[in-house]
Amino acid sequence: GVLLIAAAVFAAALLGIFTRPMGLLASFWPANPVLLALLIRRPGLSTPAGWVSACIAYLAADIITGANIWTTFWLTGANLAGVASGFLLFQQLPRADQRLRRPLSITYMFGICVIATVCSATVGSSVTKILYDRELLTGFAFWFTGDLVNFIIVLPVALTMPSRARLSAAIRNGWRQRASWDWFPAFAFILSLAGSVVVGGAGAFAYSVPALLWCAVRYDFFYVACCSFLYCALQTMIVSSGWYFSFVDGDALNSIMSVRLAIVLIALGPLSVASINAARDELISRLEHAVRYDFLTNSLSRREFMEQATNTLAERSLHGKGTAIFLVDIDHFKAINDRYGHGAGDRALVAFASRLAAILGRAVLG
What we know:
Blueprint: H1 2-17, H2 31-41, H3 48-63, H4 69-90, H5 95-98, H6 105-132, H7 136-160, H8 164-177, H9 184-199, H10 209-218, H11 221-241, H12 252-292, H13 302-318, H14 333-340, H15 342-365
Helix pairs in contact: 1-2, 1-3, 2-4, 2-7, 3-4, 4-6, 6-7, 6-12, 7-11, 7-12, 9-10, 10-12, 11-12, 14-15
């Protein structure tokens, strides 16, 4: 666990360092949300050794790239302050909200990220004044908007990422089963990103909004989070580099902060839609299961059994295949209810259904 934290934070910090424009802090800093997501998904990593390994990883990434040692300690303290406050607040949420599976989960996440970035900006804003001779309030605002963007675009991906086996299976099934028109939102999203770069202009970062919303109503939450991540990371770096428009002398920081906040608000739209869709799909799945299966034995309900049996018989008859049907009865079941009560009868039914399912499963498997 300690090595996992150190490796993840070190790699993410190096990536952020390489995105630093001249004279500014990193335009994309994934180390903080990556560390926060690791701790949320695996709370057992939140140990003194885990926090020390994260601190060492932050320091090592800055030092090997030539940063001043005292500045590095200050920046690391600011980063850890934001992550620690965010982790403590996320621990107060139910597990479903931590994995962004409820309609209000994105709202909770946004509020926690705001508080976490306020904590980190309070500690780190002085660095901006020392390094770049900016006003303290300007340094606070610049740090706050930058860190907030990083949290909003990275956390949803990291918190909803499925396991490697489930992700591989989902990708394979998606290629086999997804209808061709289901790829249209992804194509529209890619084209909108390319169009924003080619056309340019002050409003180019907003060109992908319709495509992102289309993806949000068509795809699972994790894939929507990936699209949002790609959009926001790309737009943040392009805006910070001045590709879309030239900054007015002396007003570059204000322009960058304004666009960063706009990107955050844009990202919240499709993420909220995807979160609501995920909650709706889960509810529909539970309702369908309640209709199709008996709540006690988890076997097919009478109506579902009759429908499936009728369809199976008709299909096998159409292909000239025979069908064997057997009926099973529990002897003296009424006596169990009369003598021991309906609770004992329910337990007997559950045990019988489980035993029957196990026997039939073995028979099917050979």
